Amino acid sequence: MSGRTDTLEREHTCGVHTPAELSENERAHVCSIVRQYGRVETEGLPERIERAWRIATASDGGRVYALAAIKRPDRSYLERVSAASEHALDPAWAELGWFVTLPGYRGRGACTRLVRALLAEYTGTLWVTARDDDTATSRVLASIGMAPVGSGWNSVLDGRVLHLWLKQTPGRRSGGRLSQSTNERTFTNE
Ligand SMILES: CC(C)(COP(=O)(O)OP(=O)(O)OC[C@H]1O[C@@H](n2cnc3c(N)ncnc32)[C@H](O)[C@@H]1OP(=O)(O)O)[C@@H](O)C(=O)NCCC(=O)NCCS
């Protein structure tokens, strides 16, 4: 796996990658993890993974066991979230998501570590949707200065209440831009 990596405990590595830096097999593995555990719409997921801005992974012996990502928000999804939450979202803002730690690795700080690794590369405004009853995700989001905004709505997947969370950039109310990556020059909205 290419990209920037840090050694954690023996056999454990943590890295932040562009999708192109992951092999086809690694992207397929990321996709299967999100599909199985991510509680997200799975239609078009491989394409959305290829469009992601950064994917952070934690691996054990080369096998990914936790991930988180900064995504390029799809315009129609952004508009649906904005309408449901009754809170305006700037298309230039990035979306955080795909928080998954495989059972057996949870509660050991993996998700927190990956989200912080992503934030080390992106300083703009971020939004994310999270279930109100997802304590672990809420704690990660609160720990990086995110806060729920707007109104809650019911997930079409399971009827649970979702909320929009926002991390504003101090003094930059219009939001941030994604900086250049090895294979992408600008952040384009879709
Ligand atoms: C959400 C998830 C990724 C968290 O991963 P994780 O690696 O276990 O998270 P961390 O170890 O970094 O813990 C983050 C915080 O949540 C807390 N936490 C972890 N598991 C918890 C649980 N089951 N109940 C309550 N709090 C929990 C931790 O104590 C920590 O809080 P603290 O920093 O205040 O002590 C993981 O639970 C998961 O994969 N869930 C299923 C997928 C999902 O629903 N993802 C969210 C939607 S995309």
Helix segment count? 5
Model regions low in confidence, pLDDT < 50 over at least 5 residues: 173-190
CATH class category label: Alpha Beta
Mean model confidence by pLDDT: 86
Count up the domains.
1
- CATH level 3 topology: Aminopeptidase
Largest sheet geometry: 8 strands, mixed
Beta-strand level of the residues, as a percent range? 25-35%
Shape: globular
Q: What is the number of E strands?
A: 8
What would you say this structure looks like, in words?
The protein is an alpha+beta fold and 190 residues long. It has one domain: Gcn5-related N-acetyltransferase (GNAT) (Aminopeptidase, 3-Layer(aba) Sandwich). The chain is built from five helices and eight strands, in the order E-E-H-H-E-E-H-E-H-E-H-E-E. It has helices spanning 24-37, 45-51, 75-85, 110-119, 135-143, and strands at 4-7, 12-17, 54-60, 63-71, 94-101, 126-131, 147-154, 161-167. Helix 4 (110-119) links the parallel strand 5 and strand 6 (126-131). Residues 173-190 have low confidence and may be disordered. Residues 37-39, 66, 97-101, 106-112, 134-137, 139-140, 143 line the site of coenzyme A.
